[in-house]
Amino acid sequence: MNNYRYVIMCGGTYPQWETPKQLQKVNGERLIDRTIRLLRENGVTDIDITSHDDAFIGLGASVIRH
After folding, report:
1. With a cut of 50, which residues of the chain have pLDDT below it?
2. pTM
């Protein structure tokens, strides 16, 4: 498709929530899973997630810790 690298930014703290916003479910699907799924369905293969949270490991994209 192209030579672009896609970055999903998942940093920050959420003191009022028990889990990060990107892990919240909307219509039964977590926001991060939906984002990755839609990128893959559109031919994107190079996806990175930026976060310090281990919850984003193993979602089908590499995690860049910051």
Report:
1. none
2. 0.83
